[in-house]
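Possible regression after last week's pipeline update?

I re-ran a chain I had predicted before the update to compare outputs. Posting the input and the new output here so someone can diff against the archived version. Not blocking, just want to make sure nothing changed silently.
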Amino acid sequence: MAMFRWMDMRQLIGRNFARLRKESGLTQEQLAERCGLSQQYLSGLEKGKRNPTVVTLYEIAQGLGVSHVELVRED
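New output (post-update):
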């Protein structure tokens, strides 16, 4: 994996998260309920403005039914 600046990694996670969420047919609100997170937090994450913890990535991946690795995989 290439070296990323922090902003690039947040954007990568946001893009992957948005794609996986849409592929699963979930709205941000539905996923927020599954993960126990706020819709506002998930929106910021999709926009690449949030820096999620490893635990948060795991919770989101569980809500999406994917491996947490999918959230940090290069495009």
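Follow-up from reviewer: compared with the archived run. The chain has one domain: 6-72. Marking as no regression found.
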